[in-house]
Design a protein that fits this description.
Chain lengths: 121, 108
């Protein structure tokens, strides 16, 4: 299993950025996926969820209306379109595969390496 | 959202010590509780899922216990490679999955 994020970088406040996460080593189209972020030196925050087929989709309140999660199962790729970026969106963004069983619930056994997004003028 | 409170926020320990980290949820979450280890510059790594199930490949010195709202991660004999930050995560209320604030385990 491999998850490789790309697309991070420096962007000005109010700007946009699109993160990609290329998945390999598993049947991407059968797994739910998430984006999680971490402000450098701080804790972990769930950002967005997408089901295996692309719907339903959910967002954390902090990004609702500004971020859009999507996936292309034919390309084995997960996306996060980030608009109207703010300084407080500065973080490392991880894509995460959601594993699930009825007895155990969700657990996140596979993470990407992370992509740093810096929002600054 | 379910609030997850970890304690302590940091601790100093020596190689060979027994280390215990606690995590308390703001409501009952049954056993929908996972533990992760994170080293600087790296992604979190799953250690324990469903409160007490050891993830494949994780050393048996790691164990988890608890149910309801109170949970514990124990490292039976701390090794040098265990110095890291540990996070608990609740997955009872989804998709608004939440994490504890982390416990940094440092070398005494």
């Amino acid at each position: 299993v491999q998850l490789v994020e790309s697309g991070g970088g420096l962007v000005q406040p109010g700007g946009s950025l699109r993160l990609s996460c290329a998945a390999s080593g598993f049947t991407f189209s059968t797994y739910e996926m998430n984006w999680v972020r971490q402000v450098p030196g701080k804790g972990l925050e769930w950002v967005s969820y997408i089901s295996s087929g692309g719907s339903p989709i959910f967002y954390a309140d902090a990004v609702k209306g500004r971020f859009t999660i999507s996936r292309d199962n034919a390309k084995n790729t997960l996306y996060l379109q980030m608009n109207s970026l703010r300084a407080e969106d500065t973080a490392v963004y991880y894509c995460v595969r959601a594993d699930y069983s009825e007895s155990s619930g969700y657990y996140w056994g596979h993470w990407g390496q992370g992509s740093l997004v810096t929002v600054s003028s | 959202d379910v609030q997850m409170t970890q304690s302590p926020s940091s601790l100093s320990a020596s190689v060979g010590d027994r280390v215990t980290i606690t995590c308390r949820a703001s409501q009952r979450i049954y056993t929908y509780l996972n533990w992760y280890q994170q080293k600087p510059g790296k992604a979190p790594k799953l250690l324990i899922y469903a409160a007490s199930s050891l993830q494949t490949g994780v050393p048996s010195r790691f164990s988890g216990s608890g149910s309801g709202a109170d949970f514990t991660l124990t490292i039976s004999s701390l090794q040098s490679e265990d110095f890291a930050t540990y996070y608990c995560q609740q997955t009872y209320i989804t998709p608004q999955i939440t994490f504890g604030g982390g416990t940094k385990v440092e070398i005494k």
